[in-house]
Design a protein that fits this description.
Layout (H helix, E strand, L loop, with lengths): L1 E2 H6 L5 H12 L8 E2 L1 H15 L4 H5 L1 E4 L2 E4 L9 H11 L6 E5 L5 H9 L4 E6 L2 H14 L4 E4 L14 E6 L14 H6 L2 H4 L7 H13 E10 L5 H7 L6 E4 L5 E7 L1
Parallel strand pairs: 5-6, 5-8, 6-7, 8-9
Antiparallel strand pairs: 1-2, 3-4, 9-11, 10-11
Bound molecules: S-adenosylmethionine.
The site of S-adenosylmethionine (SAM) has 22 residues, from helix 6 and helix 9.
């Protein structure tokens, strides 16, 4: 048998990644001098090989932290990102919306974290992908948070009764241009769903469709926050001009979130 520290060091992975995968393999944290049993070694070898081939660490771990929530995470949906967490923080700070919609919900992260922060809200999450929606529903059960899930193309997924009633609309839509997808890191382009990434030929197609339909769905004074690509702020400010938009930077100072009101 070999000690955990040596197993991690010999894996060909950055040490912190190897240590996290050892926790997955063993089902608990091992100390560096603890002997690793045969079954754990086998499980770890398989996980390490998948990681060396580019599978994201979060998919291999099976869970991810989003704000206050631990969520299930697998290849059915995009891995929730820190900039989306920032969008959620801005959305719930000092606001108590009654009706909330998360369009393009993926794993359900924005919808569920908002329901957690504002338990009195009626929260809806919608997505075109049945796979993503399946994961969002599992996350609803996993977190024991009550969100209504809908499948369909953008606003078409929503019950008609929500027209003109939404106090807070959140969305992290696909916004990568089709011909830029091949430049994404390999972990992303080969393992995360293309439908979650590519927003049409220019990357702005889905954002433009949201801008065109938003006015029919927001309540008077209703607010929206939408994640955008770092080069899209100018175009997005024009598309959302009727809503008095402002842009927020992410933690790295890049313009990544647009906000406005009906
Ligand atoms: C960038 S991912 C965001 C997922 C999640 N909200 C997050 O922040 O991690 C975009 C999501 O939009 C969904 N999607 C793509 N086109 C859509 C459409 N036309 N209508 C609804 N959802 C769509 C994808 O399936 C994917 O789950």
């Amino acid at each position: 048998m070999t000690e955990a520290g040596a197993v991690a060091a010999g894996s060909g992975l950055p040490r912190h990644e190897a240590e996290r995968l050892l926790v997955v393999a063993a089902g608990r944290t091992l100390t560096p001098f603890e002997e690793v049993d045969g079954e754990t070694m086998e499980q770890f070898a398989s996980l390490a090989s998948r990681r060396r081939n580019g599978e994201p660490l979060q998919y291999l771990e099976g869970t991810v932290q989003f704000g206050p929530l631990e969520l299930l995470c697998d290849s059915r949906a995009l891995i929730p990102r820190p900039e989306t967490e920032r969008l959620w923080e801005l959305a719930v700070k000092g606001s108590v919306p009654e009706t909330v919609v998360d369009l393009c919900t993926g794993s359900g992260c924005l919808a569920l974290a908002t329901k957690h922060a504002v338990p009195t809200a009626e929260v809806h999450g919608a997505d075109l992908s049945p796979d993503a929606l399946g994961l969002a529903m599992e996350n609803g059960d996993y977190t024991d948070l009550d969100v209504a899930w809908h499948r369909g193309d953008l606003f078409e997924a929503l019950p008609d009764r929500l027209r003109g009633t939404i106090d807070l609309l959140l969305s992290n839509p696909p916004y990568v241009a089709a011909d830029e997808a091949s430049a994404l890191p390999i972990d992303v382009r080969e393992h995360e769903p293309t439908l979650a990434l590519v927003g049409g030929r220019s990357g702005l197609e889905i954002i433009e469709r949201i801008a065109n339909e938003l006015g029919d769905w927001l309540a008077l004074g209703g607010r929206f926050l939408l994640e955008i690509g770092e080069t899209q702020a100018g175009a997005a400010l024009e598309l959302f001009a009727p809503f008095g938009p402002i842009v927020h930077n992410d933690l790295a100072g890049r313009p990544r979130i647009i906000e406005g009101r009906a």
